[in-house]
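Researcher: Structure for this, please.
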Amino acid sequence: MEKENCFNLNLVDLSKKAEIVETVLIAIGALLTPFIVPQLLQLIFGKTSFIASNSQYVVGSIVNIALILAGINIKGYKKIIGIITLPSISAICSGFIFKTANIYTVYMIPAIWLGNFAFVYLYRKIYVEKKKNYILASIPAILVKVAIIFFGFNLLTWFGVIPGEGKIFQALQLSMGMNQLVTATIAAIVSAGIVAGIKAKKGLYKKA
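Model: Predicted structure, C-alpha coordinate format:
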Protein backbone atom coordinates (compact mmCIF):
# COMPACT_ATOMS: atom_id res chain seq x y z
CA MET A 1 0.00 0.00 0.00
CA GLU A 2 1.12 3.57 -0.71
CA LYS A 3 0.69 4.61 2.91
CA GLU A 4 2.80 1.70 4.16
CA ASN A 5 5.52 2.46 1.60
CA CYS A 6 5.52 6.09 2.65
CA PHE A 7 5.90 5.27 6.32
CA ASN A 8 8.67 2.79 5.68
CA LEU A 9 10.91 5.43 4.18
CA ASN A 10 13.26 7.84 5.92
CA LEU A 11 15.63 10.61 4.91
CA VAL A 12 18.82 8.88 6.02
CA ASP A 13 19.18 5.14 6.53
CA LEU A 14 20.21 4.32 10.08
CA SER A 15 21.42 1.21 11.79
CA LYS A 16 18.83 -0.57 13.92
CA LYS A 17 20.51 0.65 17.09
CA ALA A 18 20.73 4.26 15.87
CA GLU A 19 17.08 4.19 14.80
CA ILE A 20 15.98 2.95 18.23
CA VAL A 21 18.05 5.62 19.98
CA GLU A 22 16.65 8.37 17.73
CA THR A 23 13.08 7.16 18.25
CA VAL A 24 13.47 7.03 22.04
CA LEU A 25 15.06 10.48 22.21
CA ILE A 26 12.36 12.09 20.07
CA ALA A 27 9.60 10.32 22.02
CA ILE A 28 11.07 11.42 25.36
CA GLY A 29 11.43 14.98 24.09
CA ALA A 30 7.83 15.05 22.87
CA LEU A 31 6.57 13.63 26.17
CA LEU A 32 8.61 15.65 28.65
CA THR A 33 8.75 19.06 26.94
CA PRO A 34 5.23 20.16 28.05
CA PHE A 35 6.09 19.14 31.63
CA ILE A 36 9.60 20.49 31.97
CA VAL A 37 9.94 23.55 29.73
CA PRO A 38 7.18 25.73 31.31
CA GLN A 39 8.63 25.12 34.76
CA LEU A 40 12.15 25.89 33.57
CA LEU A 41 10.98 29.13 32.01
CA GLN A 42 9.26 30.14 35.25
CA LEU A 43 12.36 29.26 37.24
CA ILE A 44 14.72 31.18 34.95
CA PHE A 45 12.62 34.20 34.01
CA GLY A 46 9.99 34.32 36.79
CA LYS A 47 6.36 33.23 36.80
CA THR A 48 5.04 36.61 35.66
CA SER A 49 7.60 37.12 32.89
CA PHE A 50 6.46 37.42 29.30
CA ILE A 51 8.31 34.32 28.14
CA ALA A 52 7.01 32.17 31.02
CA SER A 53 3.46 33.44 30.48
CA ASN A 54 3.71 32.52 26.80
CA SER A 55 5.44 29.17 27.20
CA GLN A 56 3.21 27.62 24.54
CA TYR A 57 5.36 29.25 21.88
CA VAL A 58 8.52 27.59 23.20
CA VAL A 59 6.88 24.25 23.98
CA GLY A 60 4.95 24.18 20.70
CA SER A 61 8.05 24.93 18.66
CA ILE A 62 10.06 22.16 20.34
CA VAL A 63 7.22 19.65 19.93
CA ASN A 64 6.82 20.54 16.26
CA ILE A 65 10.55 20.08 15.72
CA ALA A 66 10.19 16.59 17.22
CA LEU A 67 7.26 15.89 14.89
CA ILE A 68 9.19 17.03 11.82
CA LEU A 69 12.24 14.94 12.72
CA ALA A 70 9.99 11.94 13.38
CA GLY A 71 8.25 12.57 10.07
CA ILE A 72 11.38 12.55 7.99
CA ASN A 73 13.57 9.99 9.71
CA ILE A 74 11.61 7.42 11.73
CA LYS A 75 10.27 4.35 9.98
CA GLY A 76 6.97 2.73 10.85
CA TYR A 77 3.59 4.41 11.27
CA LYS A 78 3.03 2.83 14.71
CA LYS A 79 6.10 4.57 16.17
CA ILE A 80 5.14 7.84 14.51
CA ILE A 81 1.56 7.67 15.79
CA GLY A 82 2.95 7.10 19.28
CA ILE A 83 5.08 10.24 19.02
CA ILE A 84 2.13 12.21 17.60
CA THR A 85 -0.11 11.41 20.57
CA LEU A 86 2.39 12.06 23.36
CA PRO A 87 2.69 15.89 23.42
CA SER A 88 -1.01 16.73 23.71
CA ILE A 89 -1.55 14.19 26.49
CA SER A 90 1.51 15.52 28.31
CA ALA A 91 0.43 19.14 27.89
CA ILE A 92 -3.05 18.47 29.25
CA CYS A 93 -1.79 16.35 32.16
CA SER A 94 0.75 18.99 33.17
CA GLY A 95 -1.78 21.83 33.08
CA PHE A 96 1.01 24.40 32.64
CA ILE A 97 0.27 25.51 29.08
CA PHE A 98 -3.51 25.89 28.78
CA LYS A 99 -4.13 26.67 32.48
CA THR A 100 -7.81 27.55 33.13
CA ALA A 101 -8.76 26.41 29.61
CA ASN A 102 -7.08 23.04 30.17
CA ILE A 103 -10.30 21.05 30.69
CA TYR A 104 -11.70 22.22 27.34
CA THR A 105 -8.49 21.23 25.58
CA VAL A 106 -9.34 17.58 26.27
CA TYR A 107 -12.10 17.86 23.66
CA MET A 108 -9.54 19.15 21.16
CA ILE A 109 -7.37 16.02 21.34
CA PRO A 110 -8.80 14.29 18.22
CA ALA A 111 -8.30 17.43 16.10
CA ILE A 112 -4.78 17.94 17.50
CA TRP A 113 -3.83 14.33 16.78
CA LEU A 114 -5.28 14.52 13.26
CA GLY A 115 -3.51 17.83 12.61
CA ASN A 116 -0.20 16.45 13.86
CA PHE A 117 -0.62 13.31 11.77
CA ALA A 118 -1.24 15.39 8.64
CA PHE A 119 1.78 17.54 9.51
CA VAL A 120 4.08 14.52 9.77
CA TYR A 121 2.55 12.70 6.79
CA LEU A 122 2.94 15.64 4.41
CA TYR A 123 6.60 16.09 5.30
CA ARG A 124 7.15 12.39 4.75
CA LYS A 125 5.13 12.23 1.54
CA ILE A 126 6.41 15.40 -0.14
CA TYR A 127 9.96 15.71 1.19
CA VAL A 128 11.05 12.12 1.84
CA GLU A 129 9.08 10.05 -0.67
CA LYS A 130 8.68 12.51 -3.54
CA LYS A 131 12.03 14.23 -2.76
CA LYS A 132 10.65 17.73 -3.25
CA ASN A 133 12.22 20.86 -1.79
CA TYR A 134 12.00 21.20 2.01
CA ILE A 135 10.13 24.51 1.76
CA LEU A 136 7.60 22.98 -0.65
CA ALA A 137 6.92 20.33 1.98
CA SER A 138 6.80 22.77 4.90
CA ILE A 139 4.18 25.16 3.51
CA PRO A 140 1.34 22.65 2.93
CA ALA A 141 2.27 20.69 6.08
CA ILE A 142 1.97 23.80 8.25
CA LEU A 143 -1.20 25.11 6.60
CA VAL A 144 -3.02 21.77 6.70
CA LYS A 145 -2.10 21.17 10.35
CA VAL A 146 -3.34 24.62 11.40
CA ALA A 147 -6.50 24.31 9.28
CA ILE A 148 -7.45 20.95 10.82
CA ILE A 149 -6.88 22.05 14.41
CA PHE A 150 -8.60 25.41 13.99
CA PHE A 151 -11.53 23.79 12.19
CA GLY A 152 -11.88 21.36 15.10
CA PHE A 153 -11.90 24.28 17.53
CA ASN A 154 -14.59 26.11 15.56
CA LEU A 155 -16.67 22.95 15.26
CA LEU A 156 -16.60 22.38 19.02
CA THR A 157 -17.45 26.04 19.60
CA TRP A 158 -20.36 25.82 17.17
CA PHE A 159 -21.74 22.76 19.01
CA GLY A 160 -21.33 24.51 22.36
CA VAL A 161 -18.71 22.11 23.72
CA ILE A 162 -16.29 25.02 24.08
CA PRO A 163 -17.62 28.42 25.27
CA GLY A 164 -18.22 30.77 22.35
CA GLU A 165 -17.08 33.89 24.19
CA GLY A 166 -15.08 35.07 27.17
CA LYS A 167 -11.47 34.60 28.24
CA ILE A 168 -11.44 30.83 27.78
CA PHE A 169 -12.72 31.19 24.23
CA GLN A 170 -10.13 33.87 23.44
CA ALA A 171 -7.30 31.82 24.95
CA LEU A 172 -8.22 28.68 23.03
CA GLN A 173 -8.87 30.60 19.83
CA LEU A 174 -5.33 31.96 20.02
CA SER A 175 -3.84 28.61 21.06
CA MET A 176 -5.56 26.63 18.32
CA GLY A 177 -5.07 29.22 15.60
CA MET A 178 -2.27 31.76 15.47
CA ASN A 179 -0.09 29.97 18.03
CA GLN A 180 -0.22 26.79 15.96
CA LEU A 181 0.85 28.72 12.87
CA VAL A 182 3.70 30.50 14.66
CA THR A 183 5.11 27.43 16.42
CA ALA A 184 4.91 25.21 13.33
CA THR A 185 6.67 27.89 11.27
CA ILE A 186 9.43 28.34 13.86
CA ALA A 187 9.87 24.57 13.99
CA ALA A 188 10.13 24.36 10.21
CA ILE A 189 12.83 27.03 10.15
CA VAL A 190 14.86 25.45 12.98
CA SER A 191 14.42 21.95 11.56
CA ALA A 192 15.71 23.12 8.18
CA GLY A 193 19.11 23.66 9.79
CA ILE A 194 18.97 20.31 11.59
CA VAL A 195 18.00 18.49 8.39
CA ALA A 196 20.75 20.23 6.41
CA GLY A 197 23.25 19.12 9.05
CA ILE A 198 22.02 15.52 8.92
CA LYS A 199 22.22 15.41 5.15
CA ALA A 200 25.60 17.09 4.99
CA LYS A 201 27.00 14.64 7.53
CA LYS A 202 25.73 11.74 5.44
CA GLY A 203 26.92 13.28 2.18
CA LEU A 204 23.39 13.79 0.90
CA TYR A 205 23.18 17.58 0.90
CA LYS A 206 23.26 17.87 -2.89
CA LYS A 207 20.00 15.89 -3.09
CA ALA A 208 17.99 18.62 -1.28
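Researcher: Any notable elements?
Model: The domain at 2-207 is CATH 1.10.1760 (Arp2/3 complex 21 kDa subunit ARPC3). The longest helix spans residues 16-45.
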